[in-house]
Every structure is written in structure tokens, then in C-alpha cells.
Amino acid sequence: MRASFLPGPARTVDDCLASGLVMHEIELTGGAVLETGCVYLVPLMESLALPAGLSAAMNPKSSTGRLDVFTRVIGNNAAAFDQLPAGYCGPLWVEISPRTFSILARPGDRLVQVRLRRGALKAGLSQVLSVDLQAAGNAPVGWRAKRHSPLVDLCRIGAHAALDFWEPLYAPRGQIVLDPGEFYILASREAVEIPLADAAEMAPIAPEIGEFRAHYAGFFDPGFGLGAPAKAVLEVRGRDVPFILEHGQAVARLVHEPMAGKIGSAYGMNGSNYQGQGLKLGKHFKA
Fold it and tell me: Which one, of 256, 272, 119, 284, lies nearest residue 200 by Cα?
């Protein structure tokens, strides 16, 4: 695509594509490379037929955020990214923009997830999260993505050598400097536990607290961290000017929201890459 876009209430996505936004069409069958710095629009296999009173919200899956792959979902007549109103009936598209690593994608790859909400947002408990920049022994406190790294194949789980893509970060004085435009994986100082009756989403505390963005895929399922203490992994991008981040500095908040009913399966019961996690890279990288 020439650029990202929103259809707005008066247009379908096809109307927009016919207006000159498309630069080139790519066939994903057999795999296609999506390059950094480019914007792609891909139709999703799934569509929605929402009843009145049920709306949809989307965000990247955890592994998508940890690859620094920027995604946003749109539908026909959409006035906002990642939000579709109650009663929406139609197809879905995902905008994909790899920021650091080029990716090899195929039909069936899962980059985004959808949450369904009945009625208005009912936010509950809000927990402030701070960054952990103290590690035991010679362990790193975080990872910084390398530029000009190899390709990440989305189908190859646990198959990529971490040091080909990441450099470890150390903070002997309990602080690091975030460079503008660089991408970091850090962890929260606090453990996170999500009750079975709740889900939670990571949100910014306030834009004025620092020159960085601290989350891309901050959704936590019911049961995350229960029985297996886990930290929140922070996907951090520096922006505008270099910024000193210190141990214990508040970086995000966790907003809980009640589930509509009893869940069928708690997070991690059927296997998970991130239950009980500490500082952890995405599932595509070797442990």
C-alpha cells in the first residue's frame, strides 16, 4: 500500500483500494516476504456477523508484538482501527507493517486476535506496572533488536537463534538509555495474576511520563499467572529523543475487565508459550 488508511463511514475497503492506494499485489500462497518499512493489507480468513449490543476489539497477538510487527484491523465503513461497532456484518482486513524484522508469511498465520464485548467498557481494578532493570548474576535486564537481521519465518516456532536478532542489555546502575526508533524487550518488576473472572489489558499511564511507547500486544487472558508467577513483558519503542529509563519507573497500567460468564479453559491449561514467563523473547526464538 502507498499508506495506511481508514475507510470512514461512507466507504468500503474495496472503494478505498480502487482509489489508487494499491502499489502491488502479492500472492501469499507458498509464502511471501513482508519487508520492514512497508505497509501491507491482507484480507482475513474470518469475518464477523455481530448482533446488536455486541462489539469487537482487536489487537496483536503476544508473539506479533514481540516481533515488532505493527498490525491494525479494519472493516468496511470503519471509523477507527481495531474497533468494530455492535451489529457489524462483513469481512475483515489486517494492516501489517513490520518495523524491525522482515517476516515470511503464509495463509493461516495468526497475527491478531479479537475480543467481543457486550455493552460499554466496564473497567475494574487498575494496577500500575514498573520496569525491572535489576538482574541476578550476569543475566541481561532486556533485549534490543538488531537492525538488518535475517528473516523471521512465522511458521518456525523456536527455530531462530536469538543472538542473530537481539543483543542483550545490562544495567549495572539500574538504568538504560532508550534510543529513538529502537525496539526493546523488557519485563515488569511486578508479577501479574489475572483472576478467572477477569481479563486485562495493558494501557499507557500517561503520554507525558517519557519518550517511549511501552506496549503493542498487552492483552491478558483469564488465569494468566495463576499457579505460575509471571511478569508482564514490555514491548518498548523509544521515540523522539534519547530517554533514561530507571529501575522501578512506572511504565504502564493493567486495567481489568469482568468476563461475561464462566470461562471454559484458563490460560495455560492447554499449553502456552508465556505462562510463568519472566524476561522472555517471542516464541519464534530458541530458548
Answer: 256
Q: Which residue has the cell 501491507?
A: 40
pLDDT at 228: 83
Tally of CB atoms within 10 A around 48: 17
Full-model pTM: 0.92
SS3 66: helix
Which three cell numbers, joined as nine digits, stand for 158?
523456536
Residues 6+ apart with CB under 8 A from 234: 129, 131, 184, 185, 186, 187, 188, 214, 215, 251, 252
How many CB atoms are closer than 10 A to CB 91? 15
Taken in order of first residue, the domains within the chain and their CATH numbers are 13-118 (2.70.40.10), 126-258 (2.70.40.10)
Whole-angstrom CA distances from 24 to 40, 87, 181, 223 are 10, 33, 27, 43
Helix (H) / strand (E) element for 64: namely helix 62-66
Q: What is the mean pLDDT of residues 157-167?
A: 97
Each residue's pLDDT tens digit, 14-54:
999 999 999 999 999 999 999 999 999 999 999 999 999 99
Query: How confident is residue 120, by pLDDT bands cut at 50, 70 and 90?
Result: confident
Cell 491449561 locates to 269
208 or 110, higher pLDDT: 110
